[in-house]
Amino acid sequence: MKRREFIALVAAAVARPRAALTQQATKVYRIAVVHPSLPVSQMTETGGLPYWRALFQELRLLGYVEGQNLAVERYSGEGREQNYARLAHDVVDLKPDLIFAISSRMVGHLKAATTTIPIVGFFADPVGWGLVAGLAKPGGNITGIDVDVGSGIEIKRLEILREAIPSLTKVGLLNSRDVWDSPSGIAMREAAQHLGISMVGPPLEVLQEPEYRRVFAAMKEEGADAIFVGEQPENTTNMRLISELSEKSRLPAICPNRVYLEGGVGCLMSYGTSAVDELRRVAWYIDRILKGDFPGDLPVQQSTKFELVIDLKTAKALGLAIPQSLLVSADEVIE
After folding, report:
1. What pLDDT digit, counting tens, does each position of 32-64 carry?
2. 201, 311: one domain
3. Any bridge partners for residue 121, and if so which?
4. How many domains does the chain have?
5. HSE value, Cβ hemisphere, 13 Å, CA-based, for 306
Protein backbone atom coordinates (compact mmCIF):
# COMPACT_ATOMS: atom_id res chain seq x y z
CA MET A 1 0.00 0.00 0.00
CA LYS A 2 1.34 3.41 -0.89
CA ARG A 3 2.08 5.81 1.96
CA ARG A 4 -0.43 8.39 0.67
CA GLU A 5 -3.21 5.76 0.53
CA PHE A 6 -2.37 4.57 4.05
CA ILE A 7 -2.59 8.11 5.48
CA ALA A 8 -5.95 8.66 3.75
CA LEU A 9 -7.27 5.38 5.17
CA VAL A 10 -6.23 6.27 8.71
CA ALA A 11 -7.74 9.75 8.36
CA ALA A 12 -11.04 8.29 7.21
CA ALA A 13 -11.10 5.84 10.13
CA VAL A 14 -10.52 8.68 12.60
CA ALA A 15 -13.16 10.87 10.93
CA ARG A 16 -15.92 8.24 11.05
CA PRO A 17 -16.26 8.15 14.88
CA ARG A 18 -16.12 11.96 15.00
CA ALA A 19 -18.86 12.18 12.38
CA ALA A 20 -20.95 9.67 14.30
CA LEU A 21 -20.49 11.65 17.51
CA THR A 22 -21.47 14.88 15.75
CA GLN A 23 -24.56 13.23 14.28
CA GLN A 24 -25.52 11.87 17.71
CA ALA A 25 -24.94 15.24 19.39
CA THR A 26 -27.21 17.02 16.92
CA LYS A 27 -30.09 14.51 17.13
CA VAL A 28 -33.37 16.32 17.67
CA TYR A 29 -35.89 14.54 19.89
CA ARG A 30 -39.59 15.14 19.25
CA ILE A 31 -41.92 15.07 22.23
CA ALA A 32 -45.64 15.79 22.30
CA VAL A 33 -47.20 17.53 25.30
CA VAL A 34 -50.94 16.93 25.63
CA HIS A 35 -53.22 18.69 28.10
CA PRO A 36 -57.00 18.23 28.25
CA SER A 37 -57.75 21.93 28.62
CA LEU A 38 -54.80 24.29 29.10
CA PRO A 39 -54.05 26.70 26.20
CA VAL A 40 -50.85 25.69 24.43
CA SER A 41 -49.41 29.17 25.02
CA GLN A 42 -49.22 28.35 28.73
CA MET A 43 -47.38 25.03 28.29
CA THR A 44 -44.04 26.79 27.93
CA GLU A 45 -41.15 27.95 30.03
CA THR A 46 -42.34 31.54 29.69
CA GLY A 47 -46.09 30.87 29.78
CA GLY A 48 -46.52 32.13 33.34
CA LEU A 49 -47.20 28.87 35.21
CA PRO A 50 -44.30 27.93 37.53
CA TYR A 51 -44.59 24.16 37.13
CA TRP A 52 -44.19 24.33 33.34
CA ARG A 53 -41.20 26.59 33.83
CA ALA A 54 -39.75 23.98 36.21
CA LEU A 55 -40.23 21.20 33.64
CA PHE A 56 -38.31 22.92 30.85
CA GLN A 57 -35.62 24.24 33.17
CA GLU A 58 -35.04 20.72 34.44
CA LEU A 59 -34.92 19.36 30.90
CA ARG A 60 -32.27 21.95 30.06
CA LEU A 61 -30.20 20.82 33.04
CA LEU A 62 -30.47 17.29 31.63
CA GLY A 63 -29.17 18.48 28.25
CA TYR A 64 -32.39 19.07 26.27
CA VAL A 65 -32.86 22.57 24.88
CA GLU A 66 -35.99 23.41 22.93
CA GLY A 67 -35.11 24.75 19.51
CA GLN A 68 -31.75 22.94 19.52
CA ASN A 69 -31.92 19.21 20.26
CA LEU A 70 -35.54 19.18 21.47
CA ALA A 71 -38.71 19.82 19.45
CA VAL A 72 -41.87 20.21 21.56
CA GLU A 73 -45.28 19.84 19.92
CA ARG A 74 -48.08 21.11 22.17
CA TYR A 75 -51.74 20.08 22.05
CA SER A 76 -54.82 21.08 24.04
CA GLY A 77 -58.22 19.43 24.26
CA GLU A 78 -59.62 22.88 25.16
CA GLY A 79 -61.77 21.30 27.86
CA ARG A 80 -64.03 19.66 25.26
CA GLU A 81 -64.18 16.05 26.42
CA GLN A 82 -65.89 14.87 23.23
CA ASN A 83 -62.71 15.79 21.32
CA TYR A 84 -60.17 14.05 23.57
CA ALA A 85 -60.18 10.71 21.71
CA ARG A 86 -59.74 12.34 18.30
CA LEU A 87 -56.93 14.51 19.64
CA ALA A 88 -55.15 11.42 21.00
CA HIS A 89 -55.26 9.73 17.59
CA ASP A 90 -54.02 12.91 15.88
CA VAL A 91 -51.03 13.08 18.23
CA VAL A 92 -50.18 9.41 17.74
CA ASP A 93 -50.43 9.71 13.95
CA LEU A 94 -47.56 12.23 14.00
CA LYS A 95 -45.30 9.60 15.68
CA PRO A 96 -43.38 11.65 18.27
CA ASP A 97 -40.51 10.01 20.16
CA LEU A 98 -42.44 10.39 23.42
CA ILE A 99 -45.76 11.75 24.68
CA PHE A 100 -46.19 13.60 27.98
CA ALA A 101 -49.89 13.72 28.88
CA ILE A 102 -51.89 15.23 31.71
CA SER A 103 -54.82 13.39 33.38
CA SER A 104 -55.86 9.76 33.50
CA ARG A 105 -58.64 10.44 31.03
CA MET A 106 -56.25 11.77 28.38
CA VAL A 107 -53.68 9.03 28.98
CA GLY A 108 -56.49 6.50 28.58
CA HIS A 109 -57.34 7.83 25.12
CA LEU A 110 -53.66 7.76 24.17
CA LYS A 111 -53.31 4.19 25.41
CA ALA A 112 -56.19 3.20 23.14
CA ALA A 113 -54.39 4.85 20.22
CA THR A 114 -50.88 3.38 20.66
CA THR A 115 -49.11 0.53 22.42
CA THR A 116 -45.65 1.46 21.16
CA ILE A 117 -45.01 5.19 21.62
CA PRO A 118 -43.72 5.83 25.17
CA ILE A 119 -46.15 7.81 27.33
CA VAL A 120 -45.25 9.68 30.51
CA GLY A 121 -48.43 10.41 32.43
CA PHE A 122 -49.18 12.98 35.10
CA PHE A 123 -52.30 11.24 36.31
CA ALA A 124 -54.39 9.92 39.20
CA ASP A 125 -54.85 6.27 40.16
CA PRO A 126 -53.38 4.79 36.95
CA VAL A 127 -53.90 1.24 38.24
CA GLY A 128 -57.57 1.85 38.96
CA TRP A 129 -58.02 3.39 35.51
CA GLY A 130 -56.38 0.34 33.92
CA LEU A 131 -53.49 2.36 32.49
CA VAL A 132 -50.67 0.36 34.10
CA ALA A 133 -50.43 -3.14 35.52
CA GLY A 134 -48.91 -1.92 38.78
CA LEU A 135 -46.98 1.00 40.23
CA ALA A 136 -43.73 -0.90 40.78
CA LYS A 137 -43.82 -2.61 37.39
CA PRO A 138 -46.13 -0.69 35.03
CA GLY A 139 -45.49 -2.87 31.97
CA GLY A 140 -46.61 -1.63 28.57
CA ASN A 141 -45.65 1.79 27.23
CA ILE A 142 -46.85 3.99 30.11
CA THR A 143 -45.28 5.29 33.32
CA GLY A 144 -45.18 8.60 35.19
CA ILE A 145 -46.31 10.42 38.33
CA ASP A 146 -49.39 9.30 40.27
CA VAL A 147 -50.81 12.38 42.00
CA ASP A 148 -53.60 10.41 43.67
CA VAL A 149 -52.55 9.46 47.18
CA GLY A 150 -56.00 8.21 48.10
CA SER A 151 -59.04 9.79 49.71
CA GLY A 152 -56.95 10.57 52.78
CA ILE A 153 -55.68 13.84 51.34
CA GLU A 154 -59.21 14.93 50.42
CA ILE A 155 -60.42 14.19 53.94
CA LYS A 156 -57.44 16.15 55.26
CA ARG A 157 -58.50 19.12 53.11
CA LEU A 158 -62.01 18.93 54.57
CA GLU A 159 -60.60 18.80 58.10
CA ILE A 160 -58.43 21.85 57.39
CA LEU A 161 -61.39 23.70 55.91
CA ARG A 162 -63.54 22.92 58.96
CA GLU A 163 -60.75 24.05 61.30
CA ALA A 164 -60.64 27.35 59.41
CA ILE A 165 -64.45 27.66 59.47
CA PRO A 166 -65.80 25.87 62.60
CA SER A 167 -69.44 26.54 61.60
CA LEU A 168 -68.98 24.64 58.34
CA THR A 169 -71.84 22.23 57.49
CA LYS A 170 -72.18 22.29 53.67
CA VAL A 171 -69.38 22.25 51.11
CA GLY A 172 -69.77 22.57 47.36
CA LEU A 173 -67.73 19.90 45.53
CA LEU A 174 -66.37 21.32 42.28
CA ASN A 175 -65.74 18.31 40.04
CA SER A 176 -66.99 16.91 36.77
CA ARG A 177 -69.67 14.22 36.83
CA ASP A 178 -67.29 11.32 36.09
CA VAL A 179 -65.10 12.27 39.07
CA TRP A 180 -68.17 12.93 41.24
CA ASP A 181 -69.53 9.44 40.48
CA SER A 182 -66.17 7.64 40.67
CA PRO A 183 -65.32 5.33 43.60
CA SER A 184 -63.02 8.01 45.04
CA GLY A 185 -65.74 10.66 44.71
CA ILE A 186 -68.27 8.46 46.48
CA ALA A 187 -65.74 7.58 49.22
CA MET A 188 -65.01 11.26 49.77
CA ARG A 189 -68.68 12.17 50.18
CA GLU A 190 -69.16 9.29 52.63
CA ALA A 191 -66.14 10.41 54.63
CA ALA A 192 -67.50 13.97 54.70
CA GLN A 193 -70.69 12.69 56.31
CA HIS A 194 -68.65 11.20 59.16
CA LEU A 195 -67.18 14.67 59.68
CA GLY A 196 -70.67 16.16 59.83
CA ILE A 197 -70.30 17.82 56.43
CA SER A 198 -72.71 17.53 53.50
CA MET A 199 -71.14 17.72 50.02
CA VAL A 200 -73.48 19.56 47.67
CA GLY A 201 -73.44 19.88 43.89
CA PRO A 202 -74.33 19.85 41.15
CA PRO A 203 -71.43 18.24 39.26
CA LEU A 204 -69.91 19.99 36.24
CA GLU A 205 -71.53 18.55 33.11
CA VAL A 206 -69.16 20.34 30.72
CA LEU A 207 -65.87 22.05 31.47
CA GLN A 208 -66.56 25.49 30.02
CA GLU A 209 -66.98 28.91 31.67
CA PRO A 210 -70.82 29.13 31.53
CA GLU A 211 -71.06 25.78 33.32
CA TYR A 212 -68.70 26.87 36.08
CA ARG A 213 -70.84 29.96 36.61
CA ARG A 214 -74.02 27.86 36.69
CA VAL A 215 -72.58 25.40 39.21
CA PHE A 216 -71.29 28.14 41.52
CA ALA A 217 -74.72 29.79 41.50
CA ALA A 218 -76.40 26.46 42.26
CA MET A 219 -74.00 25.70 45.13
CA LYS A 220 -74.67 29.12 46.60
CA GLU A 221 -78.40 28.49 46.34
CA GLU A 222 -78.01 25.11 48.07
CA GLY A 223 -76.47 26.88 51.04
CA ALA A 224 -72.81 25.94 50.61
CA ASP A 225 -70.56 27.48 53.25
CA ALA A 226 -67.39 26.88 51.23
CA ILE A 227 -66.05 25.30 48.03
CA PHE A 228 -63.87 22.21 47.69
CA VAL A 229 -61.99 22.44 44.37
CA GLY A 230 -61.20 19.01 42.91
CA GLU A 231 -57.80 18.11 41.50
CA GLN A 232 -58.79 17.52 37.88
CA PRO A 233 -56.62 19.52 35.46
CA GLU A 234 -59.58 21.33 33.89
CA ASN A 235 -60.09 23.07 37.24
CA THR A 236 -56.48 24.22 37.20
CA THR A 237 -56.97 25.60 33.70
CA ASN A 238 -59.98 27.56 35.00
CA MET A 239 -58.37 28.56 38.30
CA ARG A 240 -58.64 32.29 37.60
CA LEU A 241 -62.34 31.89 36.90
CA ILE A 242 -62.76 29.76 40.04
CA SER A 243 -60.99 32.39 42.14
CA GLU A 244 -63.20 35.12 40.65
CA LEU A 245 -66.41 33.16 41.31
CA SER A 246 -65.29 32.27 44.83
CA GLU A 247 -64.65 35.91 45.60
CA LYS A 248 -67.89 37.18 44.05
CA SER A 249 -69.96 34.46 45.74
CA ARG A 250 -68.13 35.06 49.04
CA LEU A 251 -67.51 31.33 49.28
CA PRO A 252 -64.09 30.46 50.74
CA ALA A 253 -62.39 27.76 48.73
CA ILE A 254 -59.76 25.15 49.49
CA CYS A 255 -57.76 24.26 46.40
CA PRO A 256 -55.44 21.36 45.50
CA ASN A 257 -52.17 23.30 45.27
CA ARG A 258 -50.61 26.69 45.80
CA VAL A 259 -50.79 27.72 42.13
CA TYR A 260 -54.41 28.74 42.76
CA LEU A 261 -53.30 31.27 45.38
CA GLU A 262 -50.87 33.15 43.19
CA GLY A 263 -51.94 36.43 41.66
CA GLY A 264 -54.38 37.92 44.16
CA VAL A 265 -57.60 37.30 46.05
CA GLY A 266 -59.19 33.94 45.27
CA CYS A 267 -58.76 30.61 47.01
CA LEU A 268 -58.53 30.86 50.77
CA MET A 269 -56.03 28.04 51.14
CA SER A 270 -54.46 25.08 49.42
CA TYR A 271 -53.29 21.72 50.64
CA GLY A 272 -51.60 19.28 48.33
CA THR A 273 -48.47 18.25 46.56
CA SER A 274 -46.01 20.58 44.87
CA ALA A 275 -46.66 20.64 41.12
CA VAL A 276 -43.23 22.23 40.62
CA ASP A 277 -41.47 19.27 42.24
CA GLU A 278 -43.61 16.78 40.34
CA LEU A 279 -42.93 18.31 36.92
CA ARG A 280 -39.21 18.22 37.66
CA ARG A 281 -39.59 14.47 38.21
CA VAL A 282 -41.43 14.23 34.88
CA ALA A 283 -38.28 15.60 33.23
CA TRP A 284 -36.33 12.66 34.72
CA TYR A 285 -38.73 10.19 33.07
CA ILE A 286 -38.44 11.96 29.73
CA ASP A 287 -34.64 11.83 29.95
CA ARG A 288 -34.50 8.13 30.88
CA ILE A 289 -36.86 7.09 28.10
CA LEU A 290 -35.16 9.18 25.42
CA LYS A 291 -31.89 7.53 26.48
CA GLY A 292 -33.39 4.11 25.86
CA ASP A 293 -35.12 2.96 29.04
CA PHE A 294 -38.38 1.08 28.57
CA PRO A 295 -41.33 2.91 30.22
CA GLY A 296 -42.81 -0.34 31.52
CA ASP A 297 -39.64 -0.90 33.58
CA LEU A 298 -39.72 2.54 35.25
CA PRO A 299 -41.87 2.50 38.42
CA VAL A 300 -44.72 4.97 38.69
CA GLN A 301 -43.81 7.43 41.43
CA GLN A 302 -46.32 8.71 43.97
CA SER A 303 -46.37 12.12 45.56
CA THR A 304 -44.96 12.21 49.07
CA LYS A 305 -44.48 15.91 49.87
CA PHE A 306 -47.47 18.05 50.89
CA GLU A 307 -47.80 21.71 51.77
CA LEU A 308 -50.45 23.90 53.37
CA VAL A 309 -50.63 27.50 52.15
CA ILE A 310 -53.05 30.08 53.57
CA ASP A 311 -53.87 33.44 52.00
CA LEU A 312 -54.68 35.98 54.70
CA LYS A 313 -55.60 38.60 52.08
CA THR A 314 -58.44 36.39 50.93
CA ALA A 315 -59.43 35.64 54.53
CA LYS A 316 -59.64 39.35 55.26
CA ALA A 317 -61.67 40.02 52.11
CA LEU A 318 -64.14 37.30 53.17
CA GLY A 319 -64.28 38.48 56.78
CA LEU A 320 -62.73 35.30 58.17
CA ALA A 321 -60.42 35.02 61.17
CA ILE A 322 -58.13 32.02 60.66
CA PRO A 323 -57.34 30.23 63.97
CA GLN A 324 -53.79 30.69 65.18
CA SER A 325 -53.38 26.91 65.49
CA LEU A 326 -53.92 26.56 61.73
CA LEU A 327 -51.61 29.45 60.86
CA VAL A 328 -48.82 27.88 62.92
CA SER A 329 -49.17 24.56 61.09
CA ALA A 330 -49.07 26.18 57.61
CA ASP A 331 -45.99 25.82 55.42
CA GLU A 332 -46.60 29.32 54.09
CA VAL A 333 -48.89 32.20 55.02
CA ILE A 334 -49.47 34.88 52.38
CA GLU A 335 -50.01 38.25 54.05
Report:
1. 999 998 899 999 998 878 889 999 999 999 999
2. yes
3. 101, 144
4. 2
5. 18
